[in-house]
Amino acid sequence: MTDDQPNSPQLYLITPVGAAASTVGPLLADVLDRFPVACLRIPGAGSEEDLGRLADLAREIAHARDVAVVIDDHVELARRHGLDGVHLTDGARSVRYARKELGADAIVGAFCGTSRHDGMNAAEAGADYVSFGPCRATALGHGDIAELDLFQWWSEMIEVPVVAEGALTPALIGQLAPISDFIALGGEIWAEDDPVEALGNLWR
């Protein structure tokens, strides 16, 4: 994952939580054919068998289009199914472990909620990117919001790429675009009747 253009974030797509591989396959192929996705992330919920099937399918579809694939937290599953790395949901805590297990070339990202301190620790531990969110009020999680000034500060002070995710709207994406390297979208589109159209409305 590289950020080639300053002030022009790349699209980071999160697959539907708990989706069956058979359902999500055609949708994923359609989205990846229409939009320039930089990275695809698989949420970690589900059985080992279901996640394995989804990992294989996502890898096949994404790698055919030169898109990297990561999965939440499951280091061994990422290795076994030939994924590009992991997205760690516990901030900086597992970054060194994941790097040791997966090697120097793997993608190791860290979700750090709204904590600048966690983000800095993850970056120092060797994370390839740090993710903050949610970006506006939502009933999910702790109720904290990753404010625009967190992304502004990070983009000015820290070289490690930053991902904005959670409860995003077109207006928020417009505000985050100059100060984020990646914009992560998932729940914002899959809940809609036409996810491709929904993504088109968000990603212009």
TrEMBL record:
The keyword Metal-binding does not apply. It comes from the Bacteria. Residues 11-177 form the Thiamine phosphate synthase/TenI domain. Pathway: Cofactor biosynthesis; thiamine diphosphate biosynthesis. The keyword Glycosyltransferase does not apply. GO terms for molecular function: thiamine-phosphate diphosphorylase activity. One of its GO terms (cellular component) is cytoplasm. GO terms for biological process: thiamine biosynthetic process. Keywords: Thiamine biosynthesis. This is Thiamine phosphate synthase. It comes from Paracoccus shanxieyensis.
